[in-house]
Amino acid sequence: MKKQLLIFGAPGVGKGTQAKLIADKLEIAHISTGDILREAVSKETEMGKLAKVIMEKGELVPDNIMIGIVRDTLKEDKCSNGYILDGFPRTVKQAEMLDEILKELNSNDICLINIEVDNKLIIQRLSNRKMCTNCGSILSIDAIEEPERCPKCKAVGKLIKRKDDEVEVIKNRLEIYHNLTEPVLSYYKKKSIKIISVDGSKTIGDVNLTILRELKGYYNI
Ligand code: AMP
């Protein structure tokens, strides 16, 4: 069975971190729609220019743009062995369109990983993190031992605070999550797909172990 995973949860629950670990372990592609958009922003493409304004406010890029990006990406060779979608779908419309895309690709078996963390901890985590513009890592400020040096790729002077990690923007992102993205979970709960729910307040290692244990049972690996 092709491994087609969705990783779901509010901003700051650790989706990106877990998605990378899972992708490495299962040897599948990590598709982060946020990363794809940030790359378009840094390359100043037409889509990037549009996305920049929306992302800085913590709002959602229109569904038709996102669906186009995901449709194109899932058809790429890098996804042939499976993939984990991180940050998509974020609206019920996107979830419905993903169903269509999977039908087109003749592979509609998906598994959803749902990471749960309470709002207070999310705000604390998001306002306490930086991003390395060299390697794309998202880092907790506590993990940065030498000021200005990325602990992952060692680049110096590349650590920034994402504009969408400012407190006011975080609140907006959480409200949008609650209104537009949470209904996506109900959408999938009505379907008979495998859903793995995990407590994201635990350590990165513990969360990862729980997810991998469940995935091993499901995919027989
Ligand atoms: P992320 O890195 O997943 O937190 O995404 C950063 C930002 O990119 C979000 O706050 C949105 O503005 C935009 N974005 C990423 N994925 C989507 C999506 N599936 N639909 C709409 N906007 C998105």
Fill in the keyword field for this structure.
Rossmann fold, single chain, binds adenosine monophosphate, 221 residues, 16% strand, alpha/beta, five-stranded parallel sheet
In a few lines, what is going on in this structure?
The chain has 221 residues and is α/β, with parallel strands linked by helices.
Topology:
Elements: E1 3-8, H1 15-26, E2 29-32, H2 33-43, H3 46-56, H4 63-74, E3 82-86, H5 92-104, E4 111-116, H6 119-126, E5 129-132, E6 138-140, E7 159-160, H7 167-189, E8 194-199, H8 204-219
Adenosine monophosphate binds next to α2 and α3.
Task: Please tell me about this protein's structure.
- The longest helix is centred in the C-terminal third of the chain and has 23 residues, at 167-189.
- The chain has one domain (3-118, 175-219): P-loop containing nucleotide triphosphate hydrolases (Rossmann fold), CATH 3.40.50.300.
- It has 8 helices and 8 strands; from the N terminus they run βαβαααβαβαβββαβα.
- The protein has helices spanning 15-26, 33-43, 46-56, 63-74, 92-104, 119-126, 167-189, 204-219, and strands at 3-8, 29-32, 82-86, 111-116, 129-132, 138-140, 159-160, 194-199.
- A 5-stranded parallel β-sheet has the order 2-3-1-4-8, sandwiched between helices. It has a 3-stranded antiparallel β-sheet with strand order 6-5-7, with no helix packed on it.
- It is globular, with a radius of gyration of 17 Å.
- The protein is of the alpha/beta class and 221 residues long.
- Helix 1 (15-26) packs across helix 8, helix 2 crosses helix 3 (46-56) and helix 4 (63-74) runs parallel beside helix 5.
- Bound molecules: adenosine monophosphate.
- Adenosine monophosphate (AMP) is lined by residues 11, 33-34, 37, 54-55, 58-61, 66, 87-88, 90, 94, 164, 173.
